[in-house]
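Handout, page 2. Input:
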Amino acid sequence: MLNRITTDEFLTSSRNIGNTDVISLFLVEQMKKENEIFEKALRENAEPKVTGEITKGKIRWRGIRIIQQNEFLKSVKWLEQRGKQISPKITFEASANGL
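Output:
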C-alpha cells in the first residue's frame, strides 16, 4: 500500500483512549476505503500501469503524488501523475456541533 500508518499502529497508539475508540475505528475504516480507491487507480489509470507489489520506487518512477487540500473541517485527497488527476477526489468533511 501507500506510505501510511498501519491500522494496527493506529489502534494501539496513545491517541486511542476511551471514547475515541469509535472515532479510531471509523478512521481506520476510512483509511482502508481510501487505500482501495488509490490502489485501483494505480493499477488501472497510471501510465504505465502498476503491476505486482506497489512500492515507493514504482510510485516515484511514474511521477505519482498524493495531493491533499485542507480547509476548516474539510479535507480532499487525490492522486496525480505528472499534473494529471488519476484517481477520484476523496472528500472528508467533519462537523462540529454549534458551528
